Amino acid sequence: MPVLEPTPPDDDYLIVTLLSAGLAEILDRRAGSGPDEANTDGLLPAAWRAGFGRLWMRCAQLGQLPDWSDLDLLALCGRPMTTWPVALRLSSADLDQSLLDGDRLTDFAVQGARNARSDVEAGWTQQRVFEALKQAAAQNGKSPAERQEAYVRLRRFLIDHAVVDDTQVTKLERHLPERDNSGQTYVLKLMQTAYDQKPATDVERYRLCRRCHNVVARRGVSCGTAGCGANEPTRFVDLNPLAVIYEQNRATRRYIHDPGLVEARILNDLHADEPAGAIRVTPYPKLDKLDVLIEFLEQSDKTKVVETWGVDAKDQVSATLLGRSFTWPTDIECDRRYLALPMHRWLRAGYSKDLRAALDGRGHDVRVIDEKGLVRQVRARARELSR
Ligand SMILES: [Zn+2]
User: Fold this and answer.
1) E strand segments, 55-147
2) Where are the extended beta strands (E) located within the chain?
3) Which residues lie across from 206 on neighbouring strands?
4) What is the 194 CA–ligand 1 centroid distance (Å)?
5) Is 204 helix (H, G, I), strand (E, B) or coil?
6) Which residue in 258, 178, 177 sits closest to 215, CA to CA?
7) Alpha carbon of 238 to ligand 1 centroid (Å)
8) pTM of the model
9) Could you tell me the distance, in angstroms and rounded to a whole number, from the CA of residue 292 to the centre of ligand 1?
10) Average pLDDT over the chain, rounded to whole?
11) Tag placement on the chain: N or C end, fewer CB within 10 Å?
């Protein structure tokens, strides 16, 4: 007997993005910092109810009517989706993920919630940091080139410094001295948004991971950064504060600092090649529309650009969600477009295959590549063009 099915969604990513967005809102309400704190009506968030509704439909299609309560589903969210009593149509890598880790969203759920265009608490901090960053850059440059330079300096500061003392901040303020009406520098405003402040007047020694520059509690313990292991070498840094030490807050670390490491490595490698004169590298062109712009220069006349490549580097948990949300800026013309992955994602079984499948047919014409492969290709192309 033919079974009449409601038009199925093409897969179950919508269910998990809705549930992620709903969970984000539930956690925000609990923290009392949600956007609708004032008019909380006691109902669960609309995204949660929509996600639950779709999940219910999915179960019904499979002939198993669920009798779960919201609390049952909340408990499931803390477990890998492979263990859920309904087989969701997600990539096998994503099925290994859960949505909650204790009372926090997992990175997968944060990515999902972002795809559902929801504001996550961490997303707000991240958003506020980006706004403070853009404002500090805009106020400290008279021309687009000066604003771009200020932006790059500040962006790199956030990636290179997980912890700093106030004397280093004062130095940065001397380079970018503009102040708001209250007399505070825009740099300090950015610092206060992206870092927690700790009063300190004595020298303090921090142990940092050499690879990601994050603080490591003690020897043999992992820094916890994706892509870093437990046995990464560490180094010590002595901070010498007058009054304050700034420690990067969690949202900045996880959503700005850590994902920025891959582009910082690519930029460092390519900057080393620049003096040879075959390429010009622009970090974060047009105030961060992309991560890297590489221009190959005419050898007889180095003011002429013969070819331009653009690179967006992405360090995200779910390849499928990344592929679906990926966009290429319309106002940057490139002969080649690259989506570069850090090695720890690239080497994960199925990751680039899932990513290509999600990008397929979306008209980006983008090449997926690993960070090291990209640098090799740039070098090879520079040699080719200079022949
Ligand atoms: Zn590390």
Assistant:
1) 100-101, 104-105
2) 100-101, 104-105, 163-165, 195-199, 204-209, 234-239, 244-248, 279-283, 292-297, 305-313, 336-341, 366-370
3) 237
4) 19
5) strand
6) 258
7) 18
8) 0.79
9) 23
10) 88
11) N
